[in-house]
Amino acid sequence: LGALHRARHDATAAAEAYAKAVQHKPSAIDVWLELGRARRDAGDAKGAAAAFGQVLVERTGDVEALREGG
Fold first, then answer.
1. Which of 6, 38, 42 is nearest to 19 (CA)?
2. Residue 59, class by beta-carbon neighbours within 10 Å (0-12 exposed, 13-18 middle, 19+ buried)?
3. Exposed e or buried b per residue across 21-34, where buried means at least 16 C-beta atoms within 10 angstroms of its C-beta
4. What is residue 27's three-state secondary structure?
5. C-alpha span between 66 and 24 (Å, rounded)
6. Alpha-carbon span 30 to 46, nearest angstrom
């Protein structure tokens, strides 16, 4: 559902959908990355950093998360 919202350029709705998805499967690294991107695109820098940080908790040294989270 998050991808559908992102395709429609609705980053806020995408972030909400990805946030619900990670509640159900917290180990889903790809969903955390998408949540971070959606939050960043919605203007939520703090929320994006938290999502990218969760990727690093799950997979220390994840280069993509470091690049995205800056």
1. 38
2. middle
3. bbeeeeeebebbbb
4. coil
5. 24
6. 19
Query: Would you give per-residue pLDDT tens digits along the chain (70 residues)?
Result: 898 998 999 999 999 999 999 999 988 989 999 999 999 999 999 999 999 888 887 776 556 655 665 5
CA 24 to chain centre: 14
> Is pTM, for the whole model, over 0.85?
no
In angstroms, rounded to a whole number, what is the distance separating the alpha carbons of residues 8 and 68? Answer: 21
Nearest to 38 by CA among 3, 1, 67, 11: 11
| Nearest in space to 63 (alpha carbons), one of 27, 35, 38, 33 | 33
Q: Give the type of residue at 53.
A: G
Q: d(Cα 34, Cα 29) in Å, to the nearest integer?
A: 9
